[in-house]
Amino acid sequence: MKITNVEFVISAVRPDQYPVDALPEFALAGRSNVGKSSLINRMINRKGLARTSAQPGKTQQLNYYRVNDQVYLVDFPGYGYAKVSKVQRQQFGQMIETFLNDREPLRMVLLIIDIRHEPSKDDILMYDWLKHYEIPVCVVTTKADKIPRSKWDKHVKMIKTSLGFHPADRHVLFSSETGLGRDELWALINTTIEEAKAEAAEAHEAEEAEETAEVSLEK
């Protein structure tokens, strides 16, 4: 995707703060310091728009980035950081659960996992939760540049096995340093948006056909 316009919109903590323009949304979930902000910066070709930090757990809101006035990338708070208080973890959990359950423009969750390590318990819980509620998910294994290319397949297999990865789900190998996977991930996002548009159009046509049939019966 050619990026022509990117804007940080809001750090939201409540549903009434979410954007209301109904653009499709793709949320990024993952443990603290897994590289979500770096991935966003690579995806939008901006070095510093999404703030990266050496301090895990810094992101405490849902950070909205609008791209080309067509789609939102939504950066979730990282999970699994021990120094975040129990109250904060509960607040994060409630905020994310509310968003995932109720957010109509959400099209997919990108579950970000470091390719070098086995998925954490929180990663597995998040994946299971998304599958249970039938929320589309793509597993993005980041930091591919940190291990030899010859070990990619072995590490990806280990991650998929640990997650209980469903064959129908998508996986993208990614590196924020080299740009590996960027075009593939944008292609997936664009395809998902087009499929959602087609489904909405079909539903609209079905509603119109039903209304026409009802009018005919009344006559």
From TrEMBL:
Keywords: Cell cycle, Cell division, GTP-binding, Magnesium, Metal-binding, Nucleotide-binding, Septation
GO cellular component: cytosol
Keyword Magnesium attributed: yes
GO molecular function ontology, one term from the record: GTP binding
Transmembrane regions: none
Cofactor(s) needed by this chain: Mg(2+)
UniProt xrefs under Gene3D superfamilies: P-loop containing nucleotide triphosphate hydrolases
Residue ranges of every copy of the EngB-type G domain listed in the record: 22-195
Gene Ontology biological process terms from the UniProt entry: division septum assembly
Region (Disordered) residue spans: 198-219
CDD domains in the record: YihA_EngB
Record's function text: Necessary for normal cell division and for the maintenance of normal septation.
Family (UniProt): Belongs to the TRAFAC class TrmE-Era-EngA-EngB-Septin-like GTPase superfamily. EngB GTPase family.
Protein's UniProt name: Probable GTP-binding protein EngB
Natural source organism: Paenibacillus taihuensis
Taxonomic placement: Bacteria, Bacillati, Bacillota, Bacilli, Bacillales
